[in-house]
Write a structure and sequence with these properties.
Helix content: 25-40%
Oligomer: single chain
Mean pLDDT: 88
Distance between the termini: 44 Å
Number of helices: 15
Low-confidence stretches: 1-5
Structural class: alpha/beta
Strand order of the largest sheet: 3-4-5-6-7-8-9-10
Shape: globular
């Protein structure tokens, strides 16, 4: 096959403080603090740790006037300490706080689900951003669409795109192009489809706004890294993405090396096969090209499958092209060799290269050829890629937010405690969310949810329904366990 130069989607320049993003620049890495933004010392220290880890952009929540005003102190201290890091304010619910934050930061992120276009609020914010040279992110979240959008479109990728395009059209009408857009979800299939639809919609209207990629509530450990890599990698394979954040329920500085690993992995991409997305792709209904219903790992019997190995510098496109040239009745196991001795490096690269082939229903088996790793580790990586790709669930899945200044409890410790009690269960999804801002929406497809309701208080969900409110935190895990057992879902994996 003939290869041509690997290219990124065209995106114009957007300046965020001292960082410029767009297709003419390297993909920028960022992270977000989880300290209270009203706490200057803690927030500055964490911003500096994030910057020292290699992120050029750091985001802080500003949920109220106090936090918005304190961004002035945080930015001043960072500059006094010699950090040129671009600072972003994350705004929910209160447009007034966006106007406060825009006085001090380099970019303001707003959620269309919490903002109105009919009262001139967006136009006023754009005028303020233009005056100071502040960038704007239109950040759509799957779990927090505006009611009017949800009522017409539901919580679908199409609804997410409708929400984003409404705001982007206002920005274009106002002649303001310093805009970035994101379409985040904890469900990798929804996330990838939403971004693809967004690119199609923007292309149709001649828009070249840069794109911020991320999978929300990815969790922690190697599972969280794989889930992020599946979603982000699927889009970077197609040249989509100008800045990325890997969201982990860990110290935020831990996110940066993973994001940088993805950036480096795609920066070395050699050549480009024609990108072809099969028409069978659907955001909620998984449709496969072959009759195989449960994809296999390489150590399971697969004699009837054709093994297709990627050998070029662009493995995803090479494998996709090879599969689409076959008859649909031929089951395919995709193989790629990774010589890294580090399990995380193998996991992230393999998830980024191979995950999208399962999201799109193209592949039937996975073979991560990693001779430097133990066989059991390789099998675990393969199973986690299949689970992150939403095609085979072999362990409890945790939809856990990375936490921010809005988080109402120690979510990192709590997630570890919940995992210790429930990780052996079969085919179960548990949402562990720091607060109610995006929590109930982002964990909408979880079987059970554990959500911060107030300091020291937890609300439990079964599906989308509240079951118990305001439980003392010290009792909440026992209540969660009892709820799972009462629901008949305490089924241990074999």
């Amino acid at each position: 096959m003939n290869l041509s130069e690997f290219t990124r989607r065209k995106a114009h320049d957007v300046r965020i403080g001292g960082v410029t993003i767009g297709s003419a620049h390297p993909v920028a890495v960022q992270s977000m603090t989880n300290t209270p933004t009203a706490d200057t010392e803690a927030s500055v220290a964490q911003c500096e740790r994030i910057a020292d880890a290699g992120a050029g952009i750091v985001r802080l929540t500003a949920q109220g006037r106090r936090e918005g005003e304190n961004l002035e102190n945080i930015v001043r201290r960072l500059r006094e300490d010699g950090y040129p890091t671009a600072v972003v304010a994350d705004i929910h619910f209160v447009p007034e706080v966006a106007s406060i934050a825009a006085r001090y930061v380099d970019k303001v992120r707003i959620n269309p689900g919490n903002y109105r276009t009919s009262h001139g609020e967006l136009e006023a914010l754009i005028a303020q951003c233009r005056e100071r040279g502040v960038a704007l992110r239109i950040g759509v979240n799957h779990g927090s669409l505006a009611r009017r959008v949800f009522d017409e479109w539901g919580d679908t990728p199409q609804g997410m795109v409708v929400s984003a395009m409404e705001f982007l059209r206002v920005c274009r009408r106002e002649g303001f192009d310093q805009v970035v857009v994101s379409m985040k979800s904890s469900n990798t299939r929804v996330m990838v489809h939403a971004y693809r639809l967004l690119v199609e919609a923007m292309d149709a209207e001649g828009m070249t706004y840069p794109i911020h990629l991320g999978v929300t509530e990815a969790g922690n450990g190697i599972e969280g890294r794989i889930k992020s890599a599946v979603g982000i990698g699927a889009l970077m394979c197609d040249g989509i993405g100008d800045t990325i954040r890997v969201s982990l329920t860990e110290a935020p500085e831990n996110e940066v090396p993973v994001a940088q690993m993805l950036v480096d992995h795609f920066a070395r991409r050699e050549g480009r096969f024609e990108v072809r997305h099969p028409e069978r792709y659907h955001p909620t209904e998984y449709v496969r090209r072959s009759a195989v219903t449960v994809p296999l790992t390489h150590d399971e019997p697969h004699e009837a499958m054709r093994v297709v190995e990627a050998v070029s510098g662009n493995p995803t496109a090479e494998l996709r092209a090879a599969i689409l040239d076959m008859e649909d009745t031929v089951p395919v196991m995709v193989r790629r060799r990774y010589d890294d001795a580090d399990a995380v490096a193998v996991a992230v690269k393999a998830a980024a290269d191979l995950g999208v082939l399962f999201l799109d229903g193209l592949a039937d088996g996975i073979w991560v050829d990693a001779p430097q790793l133990p066989a059991e580790t390789v099998r675990d990586i393969e199973l986690m890629i299949l689970q992150a790709s939403r095609v085979r669930f072999s362990r409890t899945e945790y939809i856990a937010c990375p936490s921010c200044g809005r988080t109402l409890y120690d979510i990192e410790k709590t997630l570890a405690d919940i995992k210790a009690r429930t990780s052996h269960l079969k085919n179960l999804k548990i949402g562990v969310m720091g607060c109610i801002v995006n929590g109930p929406g982002e964990m909408a497809d979880a079987d059970y949810g554990y959500v911060g309701a107030a300091p020291g208080r937890i609300t439990l969900y079964k599906g989308r329904e509240v079951v118990e409110r305001n439980i003392p935190q010290e009792e909440a895990i026992e209540h969660l366990v009892a709820l799972i057992k009462a629901g008949g879902d305490w089924v241990e994996a074999e």
